[in-house]
Amino acid sequence: MRALVLVLVASAAFATPRPARDTADVGNAGSYSVGVFNPLRIAFHNRFELQANPILFFVAPHLDARFAILKPPVEPGQLPMGVRLTAEAGLLMPTYGMRLMKGFFFPSWATSPNDIGFMLIPRVGLLFSGDFFTNDVLTFRIDAAMRIPMGPNSATPMNSFLAPLEILFAAPLTGFCGRLGGAYDHAFGDRLRLRGEVNLYLTGQQGNLSVNGVDVGAVAPISPFIFTAHLGLDIAVFKYSRIAVGALFANYDQGATQVVTRADGFSDRVRVRSNNILPTVDFIWAGF
Amino acid sequence: MRRLAPLLLLVLAGCEWVADPLKFTREDVPRYKANAEHPAPPQNPTGLKVMAWNVKYGACRVDFWFDFWGDRVQLSEGEVNDCLTKVTALIKEYDPDILMAEEIEVDSKRSAYVDMVRFVLENTNLQYATFDETWNARYVPSEGVGRITLGNAIFSRYPITKAERIRQVDRTDQDFLTATFYIKRAIGRAEIDLGDRKIAAFVVHTEAYDFDGTKQKQIQQIFDVLKVEEMPWVIGGDFNELPPVCDEKAAEGSPDSCEGKLRLAGFLDERASSKGTEYEQPPYTPSVMKQFYDSYEPSISLSRYGVGEAAQSPYFTHTVLGPDGVNDEGVPGRWNRTLDYLFIRKGESWTNTDVLQEAGRLGITGDPLRLSDHAPVVGTWGLP
After folding, report:
1. Is A260 within a domain?
2. Which of B16, B109, B117 sits opposite A274 (nearest CB)?
3. Within a domain: B23
4. Which among A146, B56, B162, B362 is most buried, taking Cβ atoms within 10 Å?
5. ipTM value of the model?
6. Using an 8 Å Cβ cutoff, are B238 and B102 in contact?
7. Contact between chains at B107 and A273 (C-beta distance less than 8 A)
8. pTM of the entire predicted model
9. pLDDT tens digits, residue range A28-53?
10. Would you call A268 an interface residue with chain B, using a CB distance cutoff of 8 Å?
């Protein structure tokens, strides 16, 4: 263990802190980063990069493009400073990946032609980043994704026990997912970055239940709002890489109720929102 | 830190088990009261109209995937409300003083998160209720079932003064993961104040798919609980077992043999494709019900039940296949076996007992065959 720590620290060349993640920054041409869970980002131009998640790509083909609208010049080895504005646009085809989850998160529909329909999910977004001090970044973002149906679809929202799953599948299953978010990221010395992020998501309605092509009525309503807060710590390792750890809190409606006892001894069930507290961890190679 | 404590409590209040293991032996459960005004029941009654009904989570005749006649997993809100409206209309027609209901759900994805306890309370003359959860999972990762809270309920026109649930044994023939997310059976018990006396009402729903003798153990446990009950009692529920017309263990040709007396297998609603799955019908063991008939008073006696399907069919309470479906031989679904019962203490009396299989039985106009996969079992209990 001591040897591993020694290797990690000794191999690091900490001239400047690692750059902040999930900001409006677009890397200079040729730069890239990839995590186990974080997407692969490759800059093809100083103002243009593409990103995709390597794990999900083969079951749910997708691609996001990022265009730097405002980008101050960045010297090699230095962190970006000043006002940055970046537009994002992406496209996702989630059907095959979702069909892999049939039998678990979705019905098998073993005796009927019902299935998860083909669909395209376009996404657009805008990110704004700026600095208060040296080595900190404040980022605001707004984005939205919607569903373009490509055929009949019997899948309904999962209303699952994990808010991140709800967010991931909000657009394919409810038809819409919008986000308004903000993050503040600060470097503490050369090795650590602390990041706090909050997001408010607005999903589409639960929709109607389609059985063998027949609409049998509306699925029970669920609040369309999901709130998340994330606190993360990036620890610099090797020359360009980092380990990212953190905790995610999410608050959303999963249809839960709570029994409340009245003064007369009888009880009522009242609808309550559900919470998630989840650890997050990743290893990210390279970095911008 | 002290300032953070309320915030922490608020955060943790929203955290739940992914699947509640329901670790209790015997515990009190909440009681509920109708908000709507209901007609007051007669004070100090000499008899009580009781009904036991497995209401199939408000799905009426929608075939779910484990039925093997369909593959539905979820109902729309309209389907549930429409079904429950018809179910409560039938309950109101018979107008029981006590209703023991199984497969009642609250905040369950498949039944559109409808609070069925509240629905029955507000739409019948039953003013009080208790609900004992037997399945409480934040998410069941099978076929997209999702959140589920299912259980048994006792409804009463008279005040319920105490409600509790008694844990039943679990299956031992499932892997850890399946068992974690599976139903945990319990006996529901309510003490009901009739004015001049108190009575106890029990509701049960035993295991349906085990191959390890769990159901038989649960039935024995129910028998034992009743044996030590001190109050006058009535029990109703879905025992998932046939009446003890014969002994399934008896050799063919022997006097106790079931041959020609009671169908044990090959029911018209059993689909061949269910064989070998986790929803295959296990062999019935009607002999485990014998002690109930020997020691307690059934609403339909064995002599009335008769021998052979022709005599017994008026008292069948269950069919998976509904009237609008046909089986692989082209036979439409109809009631084809008895699984639901009402019992009171030996020596006490039943009157006006029946199985509400169809319109016209005891004057009802609703069609129970379209309202659930079980028929209501009813009778008037002459109080001791």
Report:
1. yes
2. B16
3. no
4. B56
5. 0.89
6. yes
7. no
8. 0.92
9. 999 999 999 999 999 999 999 999 99
10. yes
